[in-house]
Amino acid sequence: MAQTGFIGRPLEAASRFQLGGIAFAADQIKTGHINDTYLVHVRRSEGDVVRKIVQRLNPHTFPDPAATMKNIMRVTEHLQAKYAGMPDASRRVLHYRKTLSGDVMYSDKGGYFWRCCDFIPNAVSVDSVADTRQAFIAAKAFAEFQCDLSDLPAPRLFESMRNLHNTSHRIEQLYRAVEADACNRASTVKKELESLHALEYLAPLITDALSEGSIPERVAHNDTKISNVMLDKHTGNAVCILDLDTVMPGASLYDFGDLVRVAVNPIREDERDLPHFYFRSEMYAATRDGFLAGFRDVLTAKERDLMPIAGAVISFELGMRYMTDYLYGDNYFRIIRPHQNLDRVRALIVLARAIARFAGA
Ligand code: GN1
Ligand code: MG
Asked: Which residues does ligand 1 sit against, CB inside 6 Å?
């Protein structure tokens, strides 16, 4: 599976970290739309082989990698201290490695930033939710993640991606993209734009509650798709939360909404055969129960009230983000075929409508 075209760079980057051996092979991991991720094999001086995850940050998404990485180090060190002495402590949270000069990132000749963390053994990551047990486990794990960070000492985390879940701001961005019409695509997506327009009433539901203070600000993960939780290979239980770039101040409902977006959807994010879509209500119930179990009694009544609609808000928002990217020519989200972003938009419109209908909104 080694990607020879890519192999030089991750190995070169890995060699800049304190790994106790020589990195000799790299495989690209192709999940994720933003960063470039590699599994690197390292032969240690003792003769055994260990695995590391080496990642190149996308500088367009994360314009201040040092601040993003500072957040990640604060979060992981907080969790490492919390889990110390517990069973499986070394797998429960990511451990980042320092460079030979003691930094948390290596900057290559092209100005790209790289980081390196330990590989989590005997665990798997899945792209879709197989059953209600898995939905429950993932939701509980992300809720516990938020809870375990609720006592993170000041200062407030840096906003590594401002307005990531500011849904009204996403509408403005979409309008600007339509106006710019950089690739002459706007006239071809009129129907989809109208469908998105009809969903705009969803935009203020979470962000306004947050800015008015009727729901609390919490440290949120902000990207809670199921592939971002590692599951134990044998038991299926949650082991470790991944993809910490967007961990920053947010709302419990951003994370819950994104969990619902993935769990209730039986088809792929970019599915073209939309008649196969149906709303998986049992997955919604399992996600809700897992999230409530992970939060125990911490969620406020207002947060609980907004839970049913949160998945529609996040699906609509992501639909607008994909549409914006499509109109500008597919520069943000990685695509592997033409019009993939538009297919994602169409699937998300169907999904947002179905969740809104379910929530009675
Ligand atoms: C992106 O690259 P990945 O898969 O971690 C995006 C999320 C979207 C997700 C949709 C930083 O996440 O916000 O929900 O795609 N991450 C960023 O699959 O924009
Ligand atoms: Mg992500």
From this structure: 32-34, 61, 161, 223, 225, 243, 246, 269, 318
The alpha carbon of 37 and the centre of ligand 1 are apart by a number of angstroms equal to 14
Q: How many CA atoms lie within 13 A of 5 on its CB side?
A: 1
For CATH 3.30.200.20, list the domain ranges present in the chain: 8-121
Place of tokens 């994720």: 32
Q: How far is the CA of 85 from the centre of ligand 1 (A)?
A: 33
Instruction: Give the model's pLDDT for residue 3.
Output: 43
What is the CATH code for 8-121? 3.30.200.20
- Dist CA 181 CA 164 (whole Å): 22
Calculate how far, in angstroms, residue 53's C-alpha sits from the geometric centre of ligand 2.
15
CA distance 46 to 43: 8
Q: Which CATH number is 132-359 given?
A: 3.90.1200.10
**pLDDT given at position 7:** 59
Domain limits, CATH 3.90.1200.10, in the chain: 132-359
Task: Quote the CA–CA distance of 262 and 264 in Å, as a whole number.
Answer: 6
Q: Which ligand is nearest to the CA of 319?
A: 1
The ligand that comes nearest to the alpha carbon of residue 269 is: 1
Classify residue 331 by burial, with Cβ atoms within 10 Å: 0-12, 13-18, 19+: exposed
Stretches in the chain below the pLDDT threshold 70: 1-8
Q: Specify the DSSP element, H or E, that contains 13.
A: helix 8-14
Give the pLDDT of residue 361. 84
**CB 20, CB 6: distance < 8 Å:** no
Ligand 1 pocket test target in 29, 31, 34 with most atoms within 8 Å of CB: 34
Hey, whose CA ends up nearest to atom 15 of ligand 1? Answer: 33
The answer to whether the CB of 214 falls within 8 A of the CB of 301 is: no
In a 3-state reduction of DSSP, which class is residue 1?
A: coil
For residue 246, the CA-to-ligand 2 centroid distance in Å is 7
